[in-house]
Inverse folding.
């Protein structure tokens, strides 16, 4: 089975812009960590190096790194960038999620 | 759904723990708020998409003051109650104000506190309060945009602001409910926005030509810190004067008598002047017209303005700014050729002529990549983002640190550390606490300092009480305790119940009276007693938990005794007395076991109580009512 992580066009455009503005980095790191009000929380960070257990995905010209442990919970995720009123930011469309805490920052699988 | 931002490697915050920081450019004419999102500093627009907030506040007989564009519109119809350019008055005595402005539009009242107030329909208002209204508006905008409360802000002030003006700016921020992480000099903020603080050491010039003021600052970067070498400027020279001088030319060309012009005509002519000025940035020549007040939509005069003519008009004004530059260079005692670069700030530096003349004067190409209106706010946002702790430690600025951890006492005499030792100041951290008993309406906050686990081994700094918490079930109240240490090392602790908004605050100087050797002793003790401390902490934690369970089971048994069989009653009583005995012992594991036994003995009873309470709530109601 092949694992996949994808980006919407607007997410890809933003990441390009942010990486360029930052002036360094090998790509974007996505992951999960345990914590939060319903068990797991998303990690979204700039990546300065590729770790030995990282899977590397490439979509719309953006390199996305996911460590092997996180990938189990993120496989099939589409990262989107959207606006809500004055606020804007990234959202995870994650098919593995059974329940989230209503805030979208943490979830259970 | 939360909208997430990209963090620096390893800096992802736990959910709901994002540290939101903003930079505020509190300007004479306009103000802005900016923040760093996904590594990028951006100014935040309001709901109408406007980034600039006019620094104008209008007071009304009833209702909250108006701020921004709405207030600015009423400047002509309601001049006495519409306050603009308040920054000129903040932190100044009445004597200074009268000296500074011959044409004071406002009625100043000399009050006992030597702080002058402005008389408006809403009462006598101090300049600090006016500034606070502007800050409140920006705070609201930032919090709506970022979806949470701001942890701290950096506010910029002119490099020449004295202590009183700086303190007044801080007071305004406090009135607006903002935690000021630091006041930053405006030119320094602009330099930070361009990343000059990471560059080579040397002399940098910041040329700031705003709407109504001009400032020139000469900075020297020395080991990552900007020193202000000299400042100069003109508080009555800005882009508005460019418009005025062009408008005068237009009126003259049209053969009109300036004194006969209506206010509306004057305003229209100023707008036309501004339009022509901006158009001539690209075009060599623009057609211009002056409206005749008597005939609607008809022009009294039509003609052309060439770029050469424009330059002739504005060159004397630019020359004035360059004279200030020369004075600043002389004060700083440096030569033009020692200057590394010139940062352009303020909307009027968009004018190609200004850039050209400044470039010639300083013998270098001015820096114009960042929007000159937004560059100061952006720099403040970058600084705020670092100060609030969203950057890896190696990018942290070298600043003072807190010598010993600061925390509060929690149940059982334990210390909950809120700001860890070696945290750089200024710093602000918050943690949520809750009530321990049903109906608890007050909370005693005991501020302590030290590395040990038990309050009795730490140093007591202050005690205060938060009263007026609405009665709630234990654990339902959300009390946010915020510790803030400012750049001067002053600690303020605020406890705020989030639902009712009741709040209480205390201020202390944490390092007061502690010598270096005392700090060292406290640190050494914390290491040698680490094991005992942790054991003591575990015991106290179990004791606190035991007290909580005993109380809740006892109150349940008293309330719903009829739901218990005799057998269960005996089991619960046995478990209760066992737990009471263990609680006074010193073995945390035994207490934990006894808690579990009591929990097990009372599980069925708890379930039955729940059913009973649901039943009684539903009695007399139909299912579909719920």
């Amino acid at each position: 089975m092949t694992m996949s992580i994808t980006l919407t066009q607007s997410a890809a455009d933003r990441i390009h812009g942010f990486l360029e503005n930052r002036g360094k980095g090998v790509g974007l790191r996505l992951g999960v960590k345990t914590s939060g009000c319903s068990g797991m929380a998303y990690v979204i960070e700039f990546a300065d190096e590729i770790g030995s257990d990282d899977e590397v995905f490439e979509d719309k010209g953006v390199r996305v790194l996911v460590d092997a442990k996180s990938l189990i919970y993120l496989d099939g995720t589409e990262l989107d960038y959207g606006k809500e009123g004055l606020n804007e930011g990234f959202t995870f469309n994650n098919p593995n999620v059974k329940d989230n805490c209503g805030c979208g920052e943490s979830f259970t699988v | 759904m939360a909208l997430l931002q990209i963090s620096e490697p390893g800096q992802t915050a736990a959910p709901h723990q994002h540290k939101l920081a903003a930079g505020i450019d509190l300007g004479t004419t306009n103000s802005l708020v900016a923040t760093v999102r996904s590594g990028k500093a951006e100014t935040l627009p309001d709901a109408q998409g406007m980034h600039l907030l006019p620094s104008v506040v209008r007071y009304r007989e009833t209702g909250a003051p108006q701020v921004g564009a709405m207030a600015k519109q009423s400047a002509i119809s309601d001049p006495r109650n519409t306050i603009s350019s308040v920054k000129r008055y903040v932190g100044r005595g009445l004597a200074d104000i009268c000296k500074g402005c011959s044409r004071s539009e406002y009625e100043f009242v000399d009050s006992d506190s030597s702080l002058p107030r402005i008389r408006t329909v809403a009462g006598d208002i101090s300049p600090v309060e006016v500034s606070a209204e502007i800050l409140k508006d920006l705070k609201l905008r930032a919090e709506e945009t970022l979806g949470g409360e701001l942890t701290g802000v950096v506010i910029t002030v002119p490099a020449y602001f004295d202590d009183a003006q700086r303190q007044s700016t801080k007071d305004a921020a406090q009135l607006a409910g903002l935690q000021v992480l630091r006041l930053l000099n405006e030119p320094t903020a602009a330099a930070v926005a361009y990343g000059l603080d990471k560059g080579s050491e040397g002399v940098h010039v910041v040329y700031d030509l705003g709407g109504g003021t001009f400032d020139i600052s000469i900075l020297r970067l020395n080991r990552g810190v900007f020193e202000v070498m000299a400042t100069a400027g003109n508080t009555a020279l800005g882009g508005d004067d460019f418009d005025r001088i062009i408008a005068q030319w237009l009126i003259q060309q049209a053969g009109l008598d300036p004194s006969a012009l209506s206010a509306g005509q004057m305003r229209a002519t100023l707008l036309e002047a501004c339009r022509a000025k901006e158009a001539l940035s690209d075009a060599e020549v623009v057609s211009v017209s002056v409206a005749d007040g008597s005939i609607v939509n008809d022009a009294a005069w039509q003609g052309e303005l060439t770029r050469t003519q424009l330059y002739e008009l504005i060159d004397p004004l630019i020359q004035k700014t360059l004279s200030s530059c020369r004075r600043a260079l002389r004060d700083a005692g440096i030569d033009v050729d020692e200057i590394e670069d010139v940062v352009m700030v303020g909307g009027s530096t968009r004018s190609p002529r200004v850039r050209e003349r400044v470039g010639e004067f300083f013998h270098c190409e001015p820096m114009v990549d960042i929007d000159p209106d937004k560059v100061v706010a952006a720099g403040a946002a970058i600084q705020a983002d670092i100060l609030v702790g969203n950057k890896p430690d190696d990018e942290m600025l070298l600043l003072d640190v807190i010598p010993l951890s600061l925390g509060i006492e929690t149940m059982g005499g334990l210390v909950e550390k809120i700001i860890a030792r070696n945290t750089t100041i200024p710093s602000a951290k918050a943690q949520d606490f809750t009530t321990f008993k049903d109906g608890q309406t007050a909370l005693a906050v005991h501020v302590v300092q030290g590395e040990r686990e038990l309050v009795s081994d730490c140093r007591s700094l202050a005690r205060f009480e938060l009263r007026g918490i609405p009665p709630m079930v234990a654990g339902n109240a959300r009390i946010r305790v915020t510790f803030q240490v400012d750049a001067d090392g002053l600690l303020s602790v605020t406890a705020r119940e989030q639902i009712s908004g009741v709040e209480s605050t205390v201020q202390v100087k944490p390092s007061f009276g502690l010598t270096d050797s005392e700090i060292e002793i406290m640190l050494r003790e914390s290491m040698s007693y680490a094991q005992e401390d942790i054991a003591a902490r575990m015991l106290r934690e179990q004791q606190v938990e035991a007290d909580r369970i005993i109380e809740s089971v006892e109150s349940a048994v008293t309330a719903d005794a009829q739901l218990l069989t005799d057998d269960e009653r005996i089991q619960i009583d046995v478990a209760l007395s066992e737990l009471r005995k263990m609680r006074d012992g010193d073995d945390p594991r035994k207490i934990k076991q006894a808690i579990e036994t009591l929990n097990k003995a009372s599980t069925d009873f708890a379930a039955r109580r729940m059913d009973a309470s649901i039943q009684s709530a539903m009695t007399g109601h139909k299912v579909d009512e719920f």
